[in-house]
Amino acid sequence: MRKQTIHKGYKTELDLNNKQQTQCRMHAGTSRFAYNWALARRKELYDREKASTNAIELHRELNKLKKTDYPWMYEVSKCAPQEALRDLDKAYTNFFKGRARYPKFKSKKRGIGSFRLTGAIKVFGKEKAIQLPRLGKLRLKEKGYLPATDTEDAHILSATVSEKAGRWFVSIQVEEEIKIPENNGPPAGVDLGIKQMMTVSDGAVFENPKALSHYERKIKRQNRSLARKKKRSNNREKAKIRLQKTYARVTNIRRDAQHKATTWLAKNKSVIGVEDLNVSGMLKNGHLSKAISDVGFGELKRQLEYKTKWYGSTVIVADRFYPSSKTCSVCGYVKDELSLSERTFVCNNCGSVLDRDLNASRNLENLAVSWTESLNACKSGELWPSDSGGETAFNEAGIEHYSGRFLNG
Questions:
Q1: pTM for this one?
Q2: Which of 35, 212, 338, 367 could form a disulfide linkage to 294, CB 3.0–4.6 angstroms apart?
Q3: How many domains does the chain have?
Q4: What is the 3-state secondary structure (H, E, C) of 355-381?
């Protein structure tokens, strides 16, 4: 068992009174204002001088304007606008690296939003409360979930307060040392799908809860009801909250199923082979885009990546063009074509008949095992990466391996 220092997030619901809710709304509004002001300032600077700036320079400029133009900003913690400016810096970095679109202005119509605080943050386990800068002690609805700073050696880096469907939450980022156990579980391959969320090579199946499709009719009715309400009326606000609660329930059902499946895999399997799906390309299919979005392929992969680090397992991502569905897991024969309607894989070479998803998961398991063995051989000098950037690799005997990306271990 080895130790490792990680950054871990904990999120729980707050129990706020009216005064505290007002203070949180003020912080969220200030954070949104600072973000929009900085975005407008950066666009103006670029249009006028073709120059750029950063969060530090914008914070100095905003501090000068506080005394004259924005004195109300002194009523909230200075961390709220500071962190908003840093978020804008990250948004620009993601845009220039091609990971996201150009930053947009934040609108209050899309929700109250959130704000992040740093500095003196304390969690009181016995009192079931958290202390945040400028906001003071806030009651928690759950006891014993957040690491208490009065009894445990937990270093809290930041706290993010957010609102969703009328409920307030706090999420803290903690730097802590964890003990990583030795994972002696068997290897496994995981095939992601729409009907079954996950099909594991040992036969285990995690069903897709299909949260959005189950609540689709209710969401349509609530959207019609919202559209019929008079704008800026109390009834419209009530209808809006009802719709938000339904969407929040859909999200919670989907997230619960994802967390249960990925945690079980990370704890019980030592090596996990998964697919590298082109989700953005799959979403262009008008017939399946809604069902694909309802599963959350990207979120499943993201959760596996960080949970395997906690439980001593390894994730190996197959190449995007690896034919896991077209390949026979028994003899290795690869079919030229396989339509989506064929749910049973029938091998034309050896005659094996298997469920399509189970066959794909077993191929991913074979890939993960072979790549792990090749990686171990590489440490002893028996494996060399190819010139193509590591997509394929060869062992000492010259056997080609379809290499996955080795994410962690």
A1: 0.83
A2: 212
A3: 3
A4: EHHHHHHHHHHHHHHHHHHHHHHHHCC
